[in-house]
Design a protein that fits this description.
Layout: E1 6-10, H1 18-25, E2 30-35, E3 42-48, H2 53-63, E4 68-70, E5 73-79, H3 82-106
Antiparallel strand pairs: 1-3, 1-5, 2-3, 4-5
Length: about 110
């Protein structure tokens, strides 16, 4: 679990997609995963590599003169830190464990 690698974004228009979010941030760092459902107003972007979430956010804001736009909607963003970051990682790891368990059960417990 790398600290300082998750952006929390909100304010998306109904037509925003994972691809449109990735397009904005992938220019400044490596997007590993986007937790977003089309139609939702918020998303979590997990980055990987050398650039931290703060660096990526700062570069994206600088390039867009202080406004983050995804599909012509201005979005707000912050880096998850402290308890919020820990809670997000716990939720993510729990979901991954549940998916693995469902897959295991779907195979009839064959190992």
């Amino acid at each position: 679990m790398e600290r300082g690698m998750i952006l929390h974004l909100n304010g998306f228009a109904a037509d925003a997609t994972r691809e449109s979010i990735k397009e904005v941030f992938d220019q400044y760092g490596t997007v590993a995963w986007i937790d977003f459902v089309k139609g939702d107003s918020e998303a979590w972007v997990r980055l990987t590599g050398e650039a931290s979430a703060q660096t990526v956010l700062d570069k994206a804001l600088e390039a867009a003169q202080g406004k983050l736009l995804v599909n012509d909607a201005e979005i707000k963003g912050n880096v998850l830190e402290g308890d919020d970051e820990v809670a997000h990682w716990k939720k993510l790891l729990q979901v991954q464990a549940e998916v693995r368990e469902r897959k295991k059960q779907g195979r009839g417990d064959r190992e």
